[in-house]
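Incident log, support desk, overnight shift.

02:14 A customer reports that sequence design results differ from what the structure should imply. Their input is reproduced verbatim below. On-call engineer (initials T.W.) acknowledged and began investigating.
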């Protein structure tokens, strides 16, 4: 695949797309419309044509893009990733993330979207060297809370988590404390 700075890029594993900003023989770095930069192994990245089609790739990649491409979230327009306040609180209820599209997501898609937002929040907190913030996930049946905590336990051993302020959020929030930055 011949790459040029500015090419549109798509990553199937993360359902991300953006503009190529740099590359080597083994990795590419691109910027998503939300302003985040991501680096992936070159074999995980596919180019998009001007019409938004996946260029010269296996059918499963094209099918994945067609099915999920319309549901890629432009997080910065949906989630306040501004860690300028001392006690940052981010609400990840689907209705807050996607007020006009929330009803188009099934439960599994919504859960994956919310977990992706948590990952992006952690990346941004690392980037800005923010040690502590709170995620509001709601009480519900407790599935999202459990999945967030499983994600944190399995993927982020440097992050301590505990229940958020009970007076403000009841049992519907998790506070994260980052003890070691990447």
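02:41 Re-run completed on a clean worker. Output:
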């Amino acid at each position: 695949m011949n790459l040029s700075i500015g090419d549109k890029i798509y990553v199937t594993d993360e359902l991300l797309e953006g503009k190529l900003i740099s590359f080597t023989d083994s990795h590419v770095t691109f910027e998503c419309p939300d302003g985040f930069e991501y680096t992936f192994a070159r074999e995980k990245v596919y180019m998009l044509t001007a019409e938004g089609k996946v260029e010269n790739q296996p059918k499963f990649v094209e099918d994945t893009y067609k099915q999920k491409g319309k549901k890629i979230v432009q997080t910065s327009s949906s989630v306040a990733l501004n860690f300028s306040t001392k006690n940052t609180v981010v609400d990840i209820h689907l209705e807050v993330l996607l007020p006009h599209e929330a009803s188009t997501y099934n439960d599994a898609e919504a859960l994956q979207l919310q977990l992706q937002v948590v990952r992006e929040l952690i990346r941004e907190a690392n980037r800005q060297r923010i040690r502590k913030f709170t995620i509001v996930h709601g009480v519900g049946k407790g599935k999202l809370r459990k999945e967030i905590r499983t994600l944190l336990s399995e993927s982020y051993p440097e992050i301590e988590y505990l229940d958020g302020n009970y007076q403000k959020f009841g049992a519907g929030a998790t506070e994260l404390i980052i003890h070691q930055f990447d």
